[in-house]
Write a structure and sequence with these properties.
This protein is of the alpha/beta class. About 35% of the residues lie in helices and about 20% in strands. The termini are far apart. Bound molecules: nicotinamide-adenine-dinucleotide. Belongs to the aldehyde dehydrogenase family.
């Protein structure tokens, strides 16, 4: 037993064989098919989860619709109180859940803990929000009339999540949706289903203790076929889907075909501009964590560095030297900086991307490759690499979900911003500069075209207080803080006549 994983699994209620379909405390047996979850850390089978079939999906939807009728009538601050209790339950299991996330997904234990902290933070945010679901009041043009708008819950929200943030992304959606009065059905990634099972156990207990019905929080498990049950289902008014742009294009169209709403959080191709006016100490550290943290498997990972020609050689050398000091190994061992990729398919994609970019003319600065031998038995550990490339290269235009960093030179800021924006994706971005004019130009309407734009911090590591999401092929959705909650509600405009007459709008006369 290594790093106390087995004990953590036991405490989280995760077994070697788990049902995957749940309306809360009720777990539905849904057939013979199972997904096996292997750890990329050591290649071991962690456990199996049963796949949801159509019949059990129908049971889940029916229960969710019933639960919505109760949940929507509970005052929002009382729903917030339930989310407050969930936040406390997450505080209690932070170490165990962080460990499971690290072991099942492969991110470092510190990042696993950070992911659970993000869940706790969004709970706190949602509790406050539950008293702040504000609408506006307007002045009516008619005498004796009052006008205002209010926000009502939508109904059943379908959450489809990616493997790389196996628990936090669900909580960004679910905690906000719950205080808004919606009920949620979550389909976690088929690459990290046990994290989903563990979370369902945690929240189901709280709903039960508070005497709430089954169906406010539901879980379904499987691959895209199970996801499609929700995306094509009219009973699910909002689909919030996180994953690749490829997935988003399919999901977006499926939901649009039934005129449903979708909230899409898709791939990024994030860059940092390092100006000649940068604090290079900060720039190098920001770029390093952005590029190799989570083994390059964050949607906000730094994939491109656009470096001023006057500091290009210095940045290149200092980065290469920092890469030389990286320790790669088991993510649960806190001595290691870089863990594994999610699976061998991801390793294959990483190797292919390196070959393709070399064929396009890319020059290797820090060599990549797959690690083998003791500690690397899972076959998922790779070396983070740096390649000199040009922005227009086909591979540079794509998001490869691995630690490959492309570096390139610029001369004028205008040129740097054009390169920066010259990719199909638009999630996160940063400029490293101490020059106020450069920083403001980057943040202006003519600057970064991304949903997130930073100055003197890297591209990864967003806080929950801001709205999270991106433009262009990143999908346009916003989650988490600010007014993202509005996506989970329907807006209603109300006009009340308290006069003794019935004036029509625009002064229209209609007398008989
Ligand atoms: P993926 O697209 O392979 O899968 C994501 C989820 O979508 C999974 O649950 C999968 O089962 C489901 N899915 C796939 N096709 C579907 C379909 N046709 N219908 C319904 N559901 C479907 O992505 P992944 O490999 O798990 O995650 C990596 C990707 O996620 C990267 O591109 C990354 O940038 C992106 N991501 C984006 C954000 C963001 O907030 N913008 C956050 C995390 C990850």
């Amino acid at each position: 037993e290594s790093f106390g994983v087995q004990k953590a699994l036991e405490r989280l209620g995760v077994q070697s064989e788990n049902l995957g379909t749940s309306t809360g405390n009720r777990w539905i047996n849904s057939g013979k098919e199972f997904i096996s979850s292997f750890s990329p850390a050591d290649g071991a089978l962690i456990g199996k989860v049963q796949v949801t079939d159509e019949e059990s999906y129908e049971k889940v939807i029916a229960q969710a619709q019933d639960a919505f009728k109760v949940w929507r009538n509970m005052p929002a601050p009382q729903r917030g109180e339930i989310v407050r209790q969930i936040g406390n339950a997450l505080r209690d299991v932070k170490a165990d859940l962080g460990k499971l996330v690290s072991y099942e997904m492969g991110k470092s234990y510190q990042e696993g803990l950070g992911e659970v902290q993000e869940m706790i933070d969004i709970c706190d945010f949602a509790v406050g929000l539950s008293r702040q679901l504000y609408g506006l009041t307007m002045h009516s043009e008619r005498p004796g009339h009052r006008m205002y708008e209010q926000w009502h819950p939508l109904g059943v929200v379908g959450v489809i999540s990616a493997f790389n943030f196996p628990v936090a992304v669900w909580s960004w959606n679910a905690m906000i949706a719950w205080v808004c009065g919606d009920v949620c059905i979550w389909k976690p990634s088929e690459k990290a289903p046990l994290s989903g099972v563990a979370c369902q156990h945690i929240v189901a207990k709280i709903f039960k203790e508070n005497g709430l019905p089954e169906g406010v929080s539901s879980l379904i498990v499987g691959d895209y076929k199970v996801g499609e049950l929700m995306t094509t289902d009219k009973r699910v008014p909002l689909i919030s889907a996180t994953g690749s742009t490829r997935m988003g294009k399919i999901v977006g169209q499926a939901v649009a075909a039934r005129l449903g709403r979708s909230l899409l959080e898709l791939g990024g191709n994030n860059a940092i501009i390092i100006s000649e006016n940068a604090d290079l100490e900060i720039a190098i550290r920001g770029a390093l964590f952005g590029a190799v943290g989570t083994a390059g498997q964050r949607c906000t990972s730094t994939r491109r560095l656009i470096i001023h020609e006057s500091v290009y050689e210095t940045v290149k050398e200092r980065l290469a030297s920092a890469y030389g000091k990286l320790v790669i190994g088991n993510p649960l061992d806190e001595k290691n900086h870089v863990g594994p990729l999610i699976d061998k398919t991801a390793v294959e994609m990483y190797l292919q991307a390196i070959e393709k970019v070399k064929a396009e003319g890319g020059k290797v600065v820090v060599e990549g490759g797959v690690l083998s031998g003791e500690g690397y038995e899972s076959g998922c550990y790779v070396r983070p690499c740096i390649i000199e490339a040009e922005n227009h290269f086909e591979m540079v235009q794509e998001e490869t979900f691995a630690p490959i960093l492309y570096i390139m030179k610029y001369n004028t800021l205008e040129e740097a911003i054009a390169m920066h924006n010259g990719v199909p994706q638009g999630l996160s971005s940063a400029i490293m500069t101490l020059n106020m004019r450069e920083a403001e130009a980057f943040l202006s309407a003519a600057g970064s075209d991304c949903g997130i734009a930073n100055v003197n911090i890297g591209t990864s590591g967003a806080e929950i207080g801001g709205a999270f999401g991106g433009e262009k092929e990143t999908g346009g959705g916003r989650e988490s803080g600010s007014d993202s909650w509005k996506a989970y509600m329907r807006r209603q405009t109300n006009t009340i006549n308290y006069s003794t007459a019935l004036p029509l709008a625009q002064g229209i006369k209609f007398d008989i």
